[in-house]
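Pilot study result, target chain (163 residues):
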Amino acid sequence: MRKAGVFLIFIGAFALLTSCDKKRVYDEYKPITGGWEKDSTLVFKLGDLDSLQNYNLFINIRNNKDYNYRNLFLITEMRFPQGKVITDTLEYEMAAPDGKWLGTGFGDVKESKLWYKENVSFTEPGEYRIAIKQAMRKNDEVEGIENLEGITHVGFRIEKDLQ
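Predicted structure:
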């Protein structure tokens, strides 16, 4: 009887955790080991998406205490199936002025869910791709940071826009 009760609690907790994320359509992370190289581009293949649905797009960043900056600059490319490319240079605040990380989480690793685009529809049939690379530079330097320390994972997330 006791085993059955523990099993039911486990199944109930699992169902609760998986049902709370009804907006999620796509959610993938890529690990960064040994620092994020300046020329390293992370590509997320989005697959088939409902052309009648609107979506909100997010970039998820996990960083640890080795990240030495308040902000993060990224260059993104949204590649459409028919060849169109939209390139954006983005800046995100990662820490408050007092140095406290803005992300969530316990311990050394913090996760930041960063807005990328909202109310997007994918009307072209075929596979969309999102490419992300870091574009960090030190003050008064032209060349970018060769190996950005402290970023542990980069993710991309798509949620249904339920408005």
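One observation from the pilot: The beta strands are 24-31, 36-37, 42-47, 54-63, 71-79, 85-93, 110-121, 128-134, 147-148, 151-160. A full batch analysis is planned for the follow-on phase.
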